[in-house]
């Protein structure tokens, strides 16, 4: 019952803040909820200075939710599937080469650059961290959050090419980032010396390729079942089973669930809607997943803001986090520019597009969830607050200003 009451409070707060935003502030929902959740956390922290009992109660209630498990094990599957339903496969094919290169090569380059930057920063602050944990930070912070990114794009007037590249890269680099993180985490657990280059490549390939293949199978099975009937309630139920059953299956066979959900969502949103659904089913299924996406987004961003209460922020970590956020933007641009130049599609996209993709590459709940999933040690106690600061900087600073940047660059 305590967990039900906690979610009731989260939903109530999210509904109230969403109303305030729609009525008065009119910001993208993710930014507004993150901002108001952060303000609520600061209010709890300030109140805690006068009443330690109050802040203890809030921390105890938030501790009922394992944020990492909640997002990576439950929310992520729904959010990625819902986001992928809106991706047009014809537009995706036109930008398939650049999206694939950005998602794979760009994420790997960014992981290395950010890992090296954090290693240097920690040496500068005389708190050295092993390079493998710096690379883990690079892997968890490099993927852009499709949930946050798509919330921004709804307010921006971008060309179809730019929008497809941003959304496509964001959806796929999310899955790749989780795979890279999981691979590095295994290396950290058993020791770098016990893993060869071939072992690392094989593990990465199994997770990534296996996830895509599983997504194709899940999408095809769902498509065939939906095509054989015309009953929108059952077809919506089938789509939920694709997400929950499919994601659980991927977890069981140790392949990338996020990549599988992206592929299955794209198949359902294109081939499924075109060939397996009636107009009534298409309408109801679209609205169901749109509402589901909005509700889960509200819970997620509200929870991210409130989780600040339970994180130990020291002044030193605050400085490191802000510096890391600035270096991350530079690493993001380099990780886009190098693949674009190397694979010869820089001229087609243009420097302005790369600038928009750099500043619009927001970080969100996935980075926080991965940081919280690290094994408990002295390095986690540094990485978690730094990750929170980078995510807050990303959504509140970049998120607030990306609209103005887009208008200026596309004028």
Automatic annotation (TrEMBL):
One GO cellular component term, please give it: plasma membrane
In this protein, which residues make up the domain named Cation/H+ exchanger transmembrane?
13-406
Where does the protein end up?
A: Cell membrane
Q: Sorted alphabetically, which keywords does the UniProt record give?
A: Antiport, Cell membrane, Ion transport, Membrane, Sodium, Sodium transport, Transmembrane, Transmembrane helix, Transport
> What is one GO biological process annotated to this record?
regulation of intracellular pH
User: Gene3D superfamilies, alphabetically?
Assistant: 6.10.140.1330
**Where primarily located?**
membrane
| Bilayer topology | Multi-pass membrane protein
Q: What does UniProt give as the signal peptide span? A: none
Per the record, the similarity remark reads: Belongs to the monovalent cation:proton antiporter 1 (CPA1) transporter (TC 2.A.36) family.
Q: Which PANTHER family match?
A: NA(+)_H(+) ANTIPORTER NHAS2 (PTHR10110:SF195), SODIUM/HYDROGEN EXCHANGER (PTHR10110)
Q: What is this protein called?
A: Sodium/proton antiporter, CPA1 family
Q: What species was this sequence derived from?
A: Chitinophaga eiseniae
């Amino acid at each position: 019952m305590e967990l039900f009451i906690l979610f009731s409070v989260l939903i109530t707060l999210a509904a109230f803040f969403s109303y305030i935003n729609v009525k008065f502030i009119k910001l993208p929902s993710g930014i507004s909820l993150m901002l108001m959740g952060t303000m609520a956390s600061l209010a709890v922290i300030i109140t805690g200075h006068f009443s330690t009992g109050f802040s203890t109660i809030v921390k105890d209630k938030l501790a009922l939710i394992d944020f990492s498990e909640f997002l990576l094990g439950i929310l992520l599957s729904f959010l990625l599937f819902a986001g992928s339903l809106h991706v047009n496969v014809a537009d995706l094919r036109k930008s398939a080469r650049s999206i694939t290169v950005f998602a794979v090569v760009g994420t790997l380059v960014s992981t290395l650059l950010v890992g090296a930057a954090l290693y240097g920063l920690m040496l500068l602050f005389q708190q050295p961290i092993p390079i493998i944990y710096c690379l883990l930070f690079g892997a968890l912070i490099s993927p852009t959050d499709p949930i946050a990114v798509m919330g921004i794009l709804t307010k921006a007037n971008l060309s179809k090419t730019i929008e497809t590249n941003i959304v496509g890269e964001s959806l796929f680099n999310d899955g790749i980032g989780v795979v890279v993180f999981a691979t590095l985490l295994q290396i950290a657990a058993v020791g770098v010396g016990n893993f060869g280059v071939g072992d690392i490549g094989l593990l990465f390939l199994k997770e990534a390729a296996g996830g895509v293949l599983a997504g194709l199978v899940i999408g095809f099975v769902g498509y065939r079942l939906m095509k054989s009937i015309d009953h929108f309630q059952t077809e919506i139920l089938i789509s939920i089973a694709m997400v929950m059953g499919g994601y659980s299956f991927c977890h069981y066979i140790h392949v990338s669930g996020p990549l599988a959900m992206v592929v299955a969502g794209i198949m359902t949103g294109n081939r499924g809607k075109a060939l397996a659904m009636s107009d009534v089913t298409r309408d109801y299924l679209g609205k169901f997943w749109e509402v589901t996406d909005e509700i889960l987004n509200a819970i997620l961003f509200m929870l991210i803001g409130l989780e600040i209460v339970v994180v130990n922020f020291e002044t030193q970590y605050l400085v490191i986090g802000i510096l890391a956020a600035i270096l991350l933007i530079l690493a993001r641009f380099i990780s886009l520019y190098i693949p674009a130049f190397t694979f010869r599609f820089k001229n087609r996209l243009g420097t302005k597009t790369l600038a928009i993709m750099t500043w619009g590459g927001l970080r969100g709940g996935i980075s926080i969830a991965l940081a919280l999933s690290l094994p408990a040690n002295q390095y986690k106690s540094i990485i978690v607050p730094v990750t929170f600061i980078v995510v807050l900087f990303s959504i509140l600073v970049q998120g607030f200003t990306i609209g103005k940047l887009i208008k200026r660059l596309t004028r």
